Amino acid sequence: MKNIMIIEDDEIICNELTNILENSGYKVSVLTNFKDSLEEIKKVSPDLILLDINIPYINGELLLQNLRKTSTIPVIMVTSRNSESDEVLSMSYGADDYITKPYNPTILLLRINAIFKRINGYIDNLTYKNLNIDIGKGTVTNGNDEVLLTKNEMLIFSYLVNHHNQMVTRDELMTLLWNNSEFINDNALTVNISRLRTKLKELGYDNAIETRKGYGYILL
Amino acid sequence: MKFGKYLKDNLFNIISFFTIYIFIILLFIAFEIDFSLIVSITFLLFTYFIINLLYSYFRKKYFYNNLIFNTEKLDKSYLVLETLNKPNFYEGELLWDILYNINKSMNENVKNYELQVTEFKEYIELWIHEVKIPISSLVLMIHNHKDDLNRRLIEQTKRIEDYVEQVLFYVRSENSEKDYLITENKLSKLINNVAIKNKDYLLESKIDFIVENVDYTVLTDSKWLEFILNQIINNSIKYKKNNNSYIKLFAYEEKNKITLVIEDNGIGIPSADISRVFDKSFTGHNGRIKTKSTGMGLFIAKNLCNKLGHKIFIESKVSEYTKVYIEFSKNEYYSVLK
Lengths: 220, 338
Hints:
CATH class of the largest domain in chain A: Alpha Beta
Largest sheet of chain B: 5 strands, mixed
Helix content of chain A: 40-55%
Number of helices of chain A: 8
Order of helices and strands of chain B: HHHHHEHHEEHEEHHHEEH
Radius of gyration of chain A: 20 Å
Number of domains of chain A: 2
CATH class of the largest domain in chain B: Alpha Beta
CATH superfamily of the largest domain in chain A: Response regulator
Largest sheet of chain A: 5 strands, parallel
Radius of gyration of chain B: 35 Å
CATH topology of the largest domain in chain B: Heat Shock Protein 90
Number of strands of chain B: 7
Number of domains of chain B: 3
CATH architecture of the largest domain in chain A: 3-Layer(aba) Sandwich
Number of strands of chain A: 12
Oligomer: heterodimer
Distance between the termini of chain B: 55 Å
Distance between the termini of chain A: 22 Å
Helix content of chain B: 55-70%
């Protein structure tokens, strides 16, 4: 389980963020001792850090600079400062990404995911039960049977596979698609899901995607 | 400084000279003095008088004409004293000293205001960063407690955020020269960010968001441009028609510029209003139908565009369409440098 460290002095944000990250299957540590933040980070040695710029004792940018002297732990700067120069500065100090507050939590999760993917190298192949999913080619195969998925269907299906047995809301799917420049509306999402269902049925997986009324979908 | 007026100003001098001269001549005649001596003395007196008049004219003329000319020519006329030497006649010196003192006290006054504005601006920026923390908390909390209220809550939070952002960019656009940083930015990425920000608002309003052919790189400040696009898209949402609404973004390239067009099929802007939509606090016909219009959004957007060197203009036809054009110039120099 990936360990994410939150460095943020606002308690409410910390709690809510912890909740969101834990629900997405991450282990969360929260930095409490800002005085020796660098030591604390080394002790926990997280897989990724969410770093606020305005923190007590030391400025987030400075902390990042100090951290980069000895470590390559991925860092996402999360801050309410939204000027271009702040962003350029943070990136030049070695941040891996920069997100301004307030942000859409699903986007944050997608960005975190993107960083982990980058580090582990792209995994173009996913599996779901007996199905082999080739994201690059856009195909799903079951033995000799193969179906072609459109870009949208592939985005939705791979997201569902990554959240196997978990509830996925329509809003999450919408955010995922919009994040990939597919600005579709509610109807189009419904159509995409039903097409995906038909294609899975062809491969022998009828009713794999269940609808939970008022919430979203779940891949069983 | 005109010679005629100068003479008029010296009228008393001239009259008294002639009066004295006539008395002298009368005296000479009374004492039966030789005619040729009268002519010589007349000649000397007149020469002396004219030279004296001309000398003091030209001495003043040089200073005053420079003063007038430079004041008119300088675009910051209060700097005129810097362009002049201190004159070498008494009245001029007096004037110069007074101007100098007035200038100095004015500068101090202006400086004082400048300081106040800067401090206020710094406070606003700080305050905005502070207020964004509870807004972020709200967004996260809403996300953690999913129910039907969700989208509406997020929408309202987004509105608070937008209004807060508007203040920030107003302050930035009015008062600062170095708050922005021009870099190369992918148009598609900026549009993506703005789209995601407005996702719930657009879906809730049932507006189709269409993006075509925006694979261009432009020179701009990404945060500023995102704010500008956000204002325009918010307007499109606010002034939509009831059904089949869309917002379409596309771009095209010409010889030395790239143009981004944001088109909607909303209620449009009456032609009487269109030239004034970028004016401060202008709400116009549409602003009066739909309430809650501050008339600041487009004003700030225009201001920011001016600073960034982008051209922005609007075309519209009532109840058919509104098209906002943003032109980015291509910088040859920049691409050569790279």
